[in-house]
Amino acid sequence: MARIGGNRGDETVKQLEDCTVANAALGTWLFSVAGALIAIPVGIKRKSLGPLVFFGTTGTMLDIVMGINQCEREHAEHQMKLLEEQKLKTQNPTEDVSAETFES
């Protein structure tokens, strides 16, 4: 199970699965609606439910893929931010020590 975020302060830790479910189910719906809007006239013309099944499932599949890609992109950006913070801490360790001594 991949983790997004850390246990710092009041931040909540998001699980990668939660992110993909939220983005796939609620975040993207454009292709599902477009698929249905294309399928209805085609299905009426052909007097068949085949186009509705085809375009509806294809649109839904595209929505899920787009949601997963968005979540993976957010995860990668977050990982890069954490890496940059870690790199800055290793480059400037004296600043952290001096800040801690003043707080004590």
Category by helix and strand content: mainly alpha
Strand content: under 5%
Outline, from the CA principal axes?
rod-shaped
Helical proportion, percent range: over 70%
Largest sheet, spatial ordering of strands: 1-2
> Secondary-structure element order, as H and E?
EEHHHH
Rg, rounded, reads 23 Å
- Provide the low-confidence segments as ranges: 1-6, 8-12
Supply the number of helical segments: 4
Number of strands: 2
* Biggest pleated-sheet summary: 2 strands, antiparallel
User: What is the first-to-last residue Cα distance?
Assistant: 38 Å
Mean pLDDT: 77
Compile the SSE list and pairings.
Elements: E1 3-4, E2 14-15, H1 16-27, H2 30-46, H3 50-91, H4 93-103
Antiparallel strand pairs: 1-2
Description:
Helices cover about 80% and strands about 5% of the residues. It has a two-stranded antiparallel ribbon with strand order 1-2. Residues about 1-5 and about 10 have low confidence and may be disordered. The protein has helices at about 15-25, 30-45, 50-90, 95-104; strands at about 5, 15. It is mainly α and about 100 residues long.
